[in-house]
């Protein structure tokens, strides 16, 4: 199996050196970028498997980079872990709403960071390798083998987490799932995520699916279901 390529973006040299050392020690290939512009150029030429993205950069901040990556159909599938000194809920929610898969607050444990990376890459791989049949429901097609969702004839670019949530719900139309059940279905024990993060991902899904977003129903006091 080929090594996974990770792009680490941070303007603090000591942090980049530690990330580079620890990731290479775990067998990953690593590319380093020290600015937003350098990161965007690297993404286009190297197409990494995952991006570690600092929010506070000297030219383009991490939020804008995340928005650019997630709004491009060629790069929207790349999972992003945000590295931030900002631990406020508003900043975390903003990052998740833009399509980030996870966040790690500085200063962070490199063991925790590695666990988050493994969990997200494993999650992405499991979706790609899923041999389940393509799901066709309403005017929507969910293809786990191609990691694609179509509404009518339109391809909808989703993050790995958004795709996994939609795929999970669409496989069980009519069933109601709590937020905890949704988390358990798409994450490993190494991954920590809150109920609020599930709500944010559902909001993002509905927005991207446009009119088809109505098929994801909120069941007050319980959770969510995909309409039969």
Task: Provide a descriptive summary of the structure in words.
This protein has 228 residues and is α/β, with parallel strands linked by helices. It has 2 domains: 122 residues, Response regulator (Rossmann fold); 97 residues, Winged helix-like DNA-binding domain superfamily/Winged helix DNA-binding domain (Arc Repressor Mutant, subunit A, Orthogonal Bundle). It has 8 helices and 12 strands. A 5-stranded parallel β-sheet has the order 2-1-3-4-5, with helices on both faces. Strand 11 and strand 12 form a beta hairpin. The protein is globular. The N and C termini lie far apart (39 Å). 36% of the residues are buried. About 2% of the residues have low confidence.
Apparent shape? globular
Number of helices: 8
Strand coverage percent: 15-25%
User: What is the H-and-E element order?
Assistant: EHEHEHEHEHEEEEHEHHEE
Q: What is the first-to-last residue Cα distance? A: 39 Å
Q: Which CATH first-tier class of the largest domain would you pick?
A: Alpha Beta
Biggest sheet strand order reads 2-1-3-4-5
> Would you identify the regions where 5 or more consecutive residues have pLDDT less than 50?
127-131
What profile does the largest beta sheet have?
5 strands, parallel
- Structural class, by secondary structure, is alpha/beta
Q: What level of helicity do the residues show?
A: 40-55%
Describe the SSE topology.
Layout: E1 5-9, H1 13-25, E2 29-33, H2 36-46, E3 50-54, H3 62-70, E4 80-84, H4 89-97, E5 102-105, H5 110-129, E6 135-137, E7 140-143, E8 148-151, E9 154-155, H6 160-170, E10 176-178, H7 179-186, H8 195-209, E11 216-219, E12 223-226
Parallel strand pairs: 1-2, 1-3, 3-4, 4-5
Antiparallel strand pairs: 6-7, 7-8, 8-9, 10-12, 11-12
Helix pairs in contact: 6-8
């Amino acid at each position: 199996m080929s090594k996974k390529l990770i792009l680490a973006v941070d303007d603090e040299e000591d942090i980049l050196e530690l990330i580079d050392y620890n990731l290479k020690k775990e067998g990953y290939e690593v590319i380093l970028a020290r600015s937003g512009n350098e990161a965007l150029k690297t993404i286009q030429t190297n197409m990494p498997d995952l991006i570690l993205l600092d929010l506070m950069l000297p030219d383009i901040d991490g939020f804008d980079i995340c928005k650019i990556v997630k709004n491009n159909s060629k790069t929207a599938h790349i999972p992003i872990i945000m590295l931030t000194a900002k631990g406020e809920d508003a900043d975390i929610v903003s990052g998740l709403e833009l399509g980030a898969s996870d966040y790690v607050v500085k200063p962070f444990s490199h063991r925790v960071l590695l666990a988050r990376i493994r969990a997200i890459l494993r999650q992405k791989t499991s979706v790609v390798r899923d041999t389940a049949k393509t799901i066709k429901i309403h005017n929507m097609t969910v293809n786990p083998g191609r990691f694609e969702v179509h509404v009518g004839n339109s391809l909808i670019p989703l993050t790995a987490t958004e795709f996994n949530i939609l795929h999970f719900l669409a496989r069980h139309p009519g069933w109601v799932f709590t937020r905890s059940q949704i988390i358990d279905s798409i994450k490993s024990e190494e991954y920590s995520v809150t109920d609020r993060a599930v709500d944010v991902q559902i909001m993002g899904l509905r927005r991207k699916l446009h009119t088809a977003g109505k098929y994801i129903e909120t069941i007050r006091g319980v959770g969510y279901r995909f309409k039969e």
